[in-house]
Amino acid sequence: MNRSSTETRTGAGTVAGRTREIAVVAVLIAIGAVLRMFTPNVAGITPNFVIAMYCLSILLIRPGIGGALGIGIVGGAVCMLFSKSPIPYLNLVSEPAGALACALLARYMPELAIKNYAFKPAVATVVGTLVSGLTYITLNFTLALKMPFAGG
């Protein structure tokens, strides 16, 4: 039985490998939800550890576009349940956008490293967080608060 090097390394081609990946994502998102629920506000803002955990899971398992969107939807649903925001359902759009940005950078961005320290995971996580946050803020102002864009 011939397997590609990726399947042999990660086990992604097997049922056990796929189950392991789903378990990693579930555990990391659950950890993010617990941290988000019990973390106090910092200057009036609660840090969203779910974003950090779904970015970590994307960086670990390297899913395709559909898998990243699935991880983002699950992350958005969890954020919606544990949100302290007055409009929690906007997370169902903003979190998949952040997950997609993180996955695209993880897959297509060239390696960034100085000596033995890689910057690619940090850059992908920061960009994913910014995309998610800016999407949430834009939707909040345009849809929920009915405020116009500054440029439009």
Layout of SSEs?
Elements lengths: L4 H6 L4 H24 L10 H13 L3 H17 L9 H18 L4 E2 L2 E2 L1 H25 L8
Antiparallel strand pairs: 1-2
Helix pairs in contact: 2-3, 2-4, 3-4, 3-5, 3-6, 4-5, 5-6
Notes on the structure:
The termini are far apart. The chain contains six helices and two strands. The protein has a single domain (5-144), classed as Orthogonal Bundle (Arp2/3 complex 21 kDa subunit ARPC3). The protein has helices at 5-10, 15-38, 49-61, 65-81, 91-108, 120-144; strands spanning 113-114, 117-118. Helix 3 (49-61) runs antiparallel to helix 4 and helix 4 runs antiparallel to helix 5 (91-108). The chain is an all-alpha fold and 152 residues long. Strands 1-2 form a two-stranded antiparallel ribbon.
Features of the shown structure:
152 residues; mainly alpha; Arp2/3 complex 21 kDa subunit ARPC3; 6 helices; globular; disordered N terminus
Summarize the structure.
With 152 residues, the protein is mainly alpha-helical. The protein has helices spanning 5-10, 15-38, 49-61, 65-81, 91-108, 120-144; strands at residues 113-114, 117-118. The chain has a two-stranded antiparallel sheet.
What Rg do the Cα atoms give? 17 Å
Outline: globular
SSE string, helix = H, strand = E?
A: HHHHHEEH
If you average the pLDDT, what whole number results?
A: 86
Question: Number of helical segments?
Answer: 6
